[in-house]
Amino acid sequence: QLLAAQQPDADDLILLCRQMYTLIHAGVPISQGLAGLARSARNPVLATTLGEIRAYIESGRELSAALAQHPRIFSSLFINTVRIGEQTGRLDEAFTNLAEYLERDRNTRAQIKSALRYPSFVVVAIVIAIGVLNVVVIPQFAHIFARAKVALPLPTRVLMWMSEFTVAWWPAILTAVFVVVMGLRTWIATEQGRYRWDGFKLRLPVVGSIVHRATLGRFARGFAMSVSAGVPLPQALSVMAQAVDNEFIGERIRNIRTGVERGDSLSRSATATGMFTPLVLQMLAVGEETGAVDRMLAECAAFYEREVDYEVRHLSAAIEPVLIVVLAAFVLLFALGIFLPMWDLATVKLGAGH
User: Fold this and answer.
1) What is residue 151's DSSP assignment?
2) CA separation for the pair 275, 277 (Å, rounded)
3) How far apart are CA 313 and CA 317, in angstroms?
4) Of 301, 302, 283, 280, whose CA–CA distance to 293 is shortest?
5) Count of CB atoms within 10 A of residue 156's CB?
6) Running DSSP on this structure, what letter comes out for residue 137?
7) Per residue in 162-209, pLDDT tens?
8) What is the pLDDT of residues 50-66, one digit of tens each?
9) DSSP per-residue letters across 11-54
10) How far apart are the C-alpha atoms of 34 and 191, rounded to whole Å?
């Protein structure tokens, strides 16, 4: 568990790629360079891993084969890019390409988290507010109304029933929430559950389109890098199906690979998945015709990244109307439930005074 907690993050890998590019470009032997990086690495797990990779290389193996011994740290995309760099004699370019890809991927993930953070925070705040009102506020008014013995309107009876149910059954409610959350996490850990959950995230209002475009941008960026490095299309598609970190889209990428292996063009296979916009499909078709698929894929990635940047910046404006409606409905119910009986009480007292 401690080892898992200290796994190198994206920043560690980006720094490693930058350092490897500098060392290789300067002509420093890989084994010697890895020894220095292992001593200076901030992450202890990465330092140990680099030492093991150095020993593996000194035994006569290739760097990509050494990286493949640590799949929890280095992804298949990372390993395949290094392998192609070794085969083409452009290992320094492979590392600088990886650094750029990992940096963009980190930024994309941060954008997705940013897109999900605001609505999640608001929903949690609303749930906490409802809990406090049900447990603390409404029971106080219930005592007042009970002593006054006035007829309660429907909104008030609904609030009272919700409050009584929450106060009486809060241990069962918390237990049920815990069981549901744990059951959901267990289900998501399964292959079928992960597939359905990833598909559900893409259908979320407002946020789903951001997640969708960001994931496609990550796919296009990584695929462009693989094709540019000379990785065969089927192999590059297999690697990216795992690298996108979304099983729903990953399954469609595997469908593209199946179409390419059958002899269909990349653009036709991509069209059949229904994932891409007509503009992107047109760019893919032009790329195939001109032999510049990697350049067109990079343009697709830039297109999606610009759209994600725009949508994230305007996320608050898109979500605010929905949240305002939800909050207004909640406030209206609470106001009617509390103030209608208070109005009746005031009316009764005024009538008694006369």
Assistant:
1) P
2) 7
3) 9
4) 283
5) 24
6) I
7) 888 888 888 898 899 899 999 999 998 898 999 999 899 888 877 788
8) 999 999 898 888 898 99
9) HHHHHHHHHHHHHHHTT--HHHHHHHHHHH-SSHHHHHHHHHHH
10) 37
CB 230 within 8 A of CB 88: yes
Please give the model's pTM, rounded to 2 decimal places: 0.69
Cβ distance 240 to 254 under 8 Å?
A: no
Please list, residue by residue across 12-41, b when 16 or more beta carbons sit within 10 angstroms of its beta carbon and e when fewer do.
bbbbbbbbbbebbeeeeebeebbeebbeeb
Task: Return the closest-CA partner of residue 284 out of 263, 304, 269, 274.
Answer: 269
* Residue 315 and residue 305 in contact, taking contact as beta carbons nearer than 8 Å: no
| Cβ partners under 8 Å of residue 132, min gap 6 | none
Q: Name the residue with tokens 């220095």.
A: 36
Tokens for 62, please give them. Answer: 């290739």
Sign of CA dihedral 345, 347, 350, 354: negative
The three-class DSSP label of residue 74 is coil
Residue 153 sits at φ, ψ, to 5 deg, of -70, 170
Which amino acid is present at 148? A
